[in-house]
Hints:
Chain A contains eleven helices and no strands. Chain A is an all-alpha fold. Chain A has one domain: MetI-like fold (Orthogonal Bundle), CATH 1.10.3720.
Amino acid sequence: MGAARLVRGTTSIVVILVAWQLFAGRIPTSLPFPNVVDVAESAYDLAASGDLWQATVVSLQRVLLGFSIAVVIALPLGLTMGYVGLLERFLDGLVQAFRSIAPIAVLPLFILWFGQGDVAAASVVAYAAVFPILINTIAGVHSTETRLVDAARTLGLGHRHVLTHVVLPGCTPQVMTGMRLGMGLAWGSIIAAELAVGAKTGASGGIGQLMFISYAYQTDVSALIVYMIVVGLLGFGIDALFRTFGRKWEPQRRSSS
Amino acid sequence: MSKQVTLADNNASSAGGSARPSITSRTVIESALPWVAVVAFLLVWQLAAGSIANAALLPPPARVASALGEHIADGQLLNNAVASLGRLAMGFIIAVVVGAPLGVLMALSRAANDFIEPVVEIIRPISGIAWIPLALIVLGVSQALPVFIIAYVAIFPIMLNTAAACRGVSQGLLRAARVLGLSRSAIIRHVVLPAAVVGVMTGARLGAGGAWLALVAAEFIGAPDGLGFSIWYFAGIIQTAEMIAYICVTGFGGYVTDRALRLLQRRLTPWSPALRGI
């Protein structure tokens, strides 16, 4: 069963690669249409030159910075909003309004305020990640067992301790889900931000900007495809990391109910 | 139930209210609360804009409102909104037309699933935005570029949710249909396809946020008009009030899309598990 699956999966990938290679061979060489071997060579060259690593590190740093800001804002706010019903009602309209705005739409405003560097990029990432974390944290608090909160209150715990010792551990799985969703959006947004900033000037780096350069100045499609693969691999890796962590915290929910 | 009571108690005591307000005035206050926050936000914005006193950096809300009014009045905003929404709709239609049948196929045939799934899992992590430069080389700055990116973004949640929904058809239903003498094609038409619609709608709603993100990003760089194009255009000539007005319109568009899809979902698949708890 597993073998058939593996064979079929490999077959379809090989068929696609062979079809690409054959198709590329029939395109006139005047057009910038690379074949599989071109892309592989380009990948080797880029990996050897070190520019790609540097740009990757720049992008990842921005994502990490923006994501950390988002967690620092969304986690305490989400816990409090979920716990204090009136606060949730109070902020609901604003959250709904800002949540509906696509994160990349606010990029020009952040560039205007913070310039075209790391701060604007990290702000867009933070904006993208903050709402999934916030909304999932609130939902997590709502799903905490009322009995546990009541018991803790009866035993004389203050609201702050109930939040940190009862509610927070109970809603960890949902918080992880929110972080995973937020990270996915954040990774998409950073590439978009760097692409768009790259479209304006030639500073500040990142994979998105490398992509823009190979599109706009070099028309180097092989390199472009390598960058796309790197973006995909990193996106996959980051998501896998969150899924592993999420699974690790999953049992906590069972033991607490 | 008991949670409501404890929360209400907490609120009353933390607000320091000596006399507890009656239920009706409570609900009035609660329904007014979000608007209080919105008004407070506008007030803070107004004060900040007043103290910065630089309309290029932060125009006051009234200025943004008047810019919005002007663009509504001369029809420019409507044209751009129609262009963007048209691309969004076109992209979604393509995603459904391609993604839904593939999803059904993946659910019905193990072989098809084995062939398709690895390819999907390899391509899917590449975000739609990462396709923009390549699409620019192939398609150029055009109508087709945002449509392609949106279709790409929307197709995966639609396809995978359709497959999951079809696989989730209960064995009891299938057995009942078989016992009642339905042919395989009749079972697919009357049992599996309604389940597929549930998956399509769930996938469409999940994909909508990402589609808006991709739409705006694609229009920044790769479209001759539209909401994203307008934001980027007015940012370029530092007409900040117009830029913020278009950002707000984008947000409104995102909100309306979500509401419309939710309504459609309730219409088409009122039994959908995705509607529980809303």
